[in-house]
Amino acid sequence: MRVPTSITTHVATAHADTKSTFQEYKANIKNRLRGKAYEFGSGPAAYLVLSGFLLGSVSTLGVTFVYRRYFRRLRTAEWITPDVLRRKRWVRGVVTSVGDGDNFRLYHTPGFGWKWPLKLQRSTDFDSKIKRYTVRIAGVDAPEGSHFGRPAQPYASRSFRVGRIVYCQLVRRDQYSRIVSVVTLPPPFLPGWLITGRSLALEMLRAGTGLTYEQAGAEYGKYGKDEFLRAEAESRTARRGMWKHGTAGETPGQYKRRYAQGGTDVETQIQACSCQFVLEVDGRLIS
After folding, report:
1. Which of 144, 203, 219, 267 is the catalytic position?
2. I need a labelling partner for 136 at 20 to 30 A (CA). Which of 76, 162, 188, 199 fits?
3. Is 144 a catalytic residue?
4. Among 132, 158, 178, 206, the one annotated catalytic
5. What is the DSSP pairing of strand 279-281 with strand 165-173?
6. Residue 178 annotated among the catalytic residues of the structure
């Protein structure tokens, strides 16, 4: 059956009118929305809302960045990332135990109030209950203490006290997962973040309680190897510490090699030891 031409024309016209009406309605809505947006954007309230949002976002990102980079506590060695070592970040902390004269365990205290957990523990057991990591003092090799029935080397009991605050520049991780660091003592008057204190490694060399570490990969910080050798020579000339009789006897490296030849790696086992020592410099105790 053939549809009359008039009906077809009427349907096409109605469809076109409907489509045109819908497009006009859609355009009208867009225009009204643009007008409202312009009215809102031109008002002072919009600037306040937008400024507050931007300021809050920037502040949040800035505080988060500063906290993660400078104030977040590095609890264990696993928290010390390659990026931290690449930047050679300085950290402040408390010595919780000492292995030999050239390594100790550090409790990181990045800001005010971080030291309070230490005050809740007895000095005899707090090291086993808090998270900390082992620091190897860069550039110095100290005499080995008594471990696992082996006799200690002379002047092995000359280090620094547990509870001492130190500043460490984190340099690298050694083969025993210790963090090799340039360690300094707090300056006497100004805060440690403002000025660098005395180098602990140089103090040990001058006191005759350590030797310059000269193996591959040795770190000396800003002082340089020559300054370390000069301090050691000064101690040797003045016959301090292990140089009292003019000879150092068996060096720490020779001591470890002697026992390693018997089938035991001394360096690996002594990491677990937590002994308390005192460093004597020219008859004075560094505490």
Report:
1. 144
2. 188
3. yes
4. 178
5. unpaired
6. yes
